[in-house]
Design brief:
Elements: H1 23-91, H2 96-130
Helix pairs in contact: 1-2
Length: 146
């Protein structure tokens, strides 16, 4: 009946939308623009943080190197002081207490020098981490895909 047009009931419909004001689309556009501005801000903030981390790592590295240089000089002077105190003790011009005090100072200087070397190694690792070269010695590559 339907294809022969013998059916007693027929119907037709027509529907159309005129987009006078599409508030959902405008809201989506506004959200996208806000997210774009927020992403730019976050990117700029991340870039500034990376630059600050690298500068801080370089400063720490230079400070650690200076601490090693100062510790090396202090150790050389402490060794000379112990040698001088040892010679004085052998000649009878000083006591055992003063010799032991000079040796304790040498031990303290050597301890601080070891701490300076540890600080330098720590600063070097922080520098490599900040510049993304930490794994280069091990042939490990990290690919960051956008």
């Amino acid at each position: 009946q339907m294809f022969l047009f013998n059916s007693p009931y027929y119907g037709a419909g027509l529907s159309f939308n005129l987009p006078f004001r599409n508030s959902a689309a405008q809201a989506s556009l506004s959200d996208a623009l806000v997210n774009k501005a927020r992403d730019r801000y976050t990117e700029r903030q991340t870039e500034q943080q990376v630059v600050a981390d690298v500068k801080q790592a370089i400063n720490s590295l230079e400070l650690s190197k200076a601490a090693i240089d100062a510790g090396t000089t202090a150790r050389a002077l402490a060794v000379k002081n112990v040698d001088a105190e040892q010679q004085k003790y052998e000649l009878g011009g000083t006591t055992v207490f003063e010799l032991l005090q000079a040796q304790n100072q040498l031990a303290a200087v050597e301890n601080s020098l070891v701490s300076a070397y540890v600080g330098y190694q720590t600063a070097y690792v922080q520098y490599e981490r900040a510049t993304w070269t930490l794994f280069d010695d091990y042939d490990i590559r990290i690919d960051v895909k956008p």
